[in-house]
Amino acid sequence: MSINLTLLIVMGALYACGIYLILERSLTRVLLGLMLLANATNLLLLATGGYAGLAPLYSKDVAAGDYSDPLPQALILTSIVISFAVTAFMLGIIYRTWVLARRDEIQDDLEDLRVAETPSFDAEDDAEIPAETSEFPLTMLGGDGRDISDRGPAQAGAAATATLVAGGREMPAEKAAAEEKPGSTNVTPGPEGGGK
């Protein structure tokens, strides 16, 4: 397959100018850049079709390689319709911006600037939390992550009974476990059967 070098050079220039114009802050220049990109894409699709051939109408006497490929032409028609729709949409945006602000340039949004200047560290979200944050005393872990609570035995030689503080009083872990079980004797049932 041979490609026309002139089409490639024109296509490259259109792509370069179109990308340069899209990066501008003026909406009119962005629109012109989009139009140049659409035309460069049409040239790219045209170049993929190769040289012109016979019309793609089937005949037994014509070899398959002599026909012109209709697919790039169909893709170019689709590209023209899409670029027309994008151009119409951009013209509507440009007109609305001109009516509201009497200027064509995109201004910095104050909220976008505030978000961009916000540090990525958030003291509340990025703080280290304990291994377990449950409100139930039996499942609370101590500072070391192994004990039930930070209150261990009083002396090293004393019996190892885990205690924890619940409701402003210190109690053994076994008693706290009994309080959490259904049918606990520490809870008086209400008229509906639940605790008061």
Description:
This protein is mainly α and 196 residues long. The protein is 44% helix and 4% strand. It has a two-stranded antiparallel ribbon. Helix 1 (5-22) runs antiparallel to helix 2 (27-48) and helix 2 packs antiparallel against helix 3.
Rg calculated over all Cα atoms: 38 Å
What is the percentage of strand-forming residues? under 5%
Distance between the termini: 88 Å
Contiguous low-pLDDT stretches (5 residues minimum) are 152-159
Structural class of the helix and strand makeup? mainly alpha
Q: How much helical structure, as a percent, in the residues?
A: 40-55%
The helix-strand sequence is HHHHEEH
- Give me the oligomer status: single chain
Shape: elongated
Side-by-side strand order of the widest sheet? 1-2
The number of E-state strands comes to: 2
* Count of helix runs: 5
Q: Output mean pLDDT.
A: 75
Largest sheet properties: 2 strands, antiparallel
Summarize the structure.
By secondary structure, the chain is mostly helical.
Question: Topology, pairings included?
Answer:
Layout: H1 5-22, H2 27-48, H3 71-101, H4 110-117, E1 163-166, E2 169-172, H5 173-180
Antiparallel strand pairs: 1-2
Helix pairs in contact: 1-2, 2-3
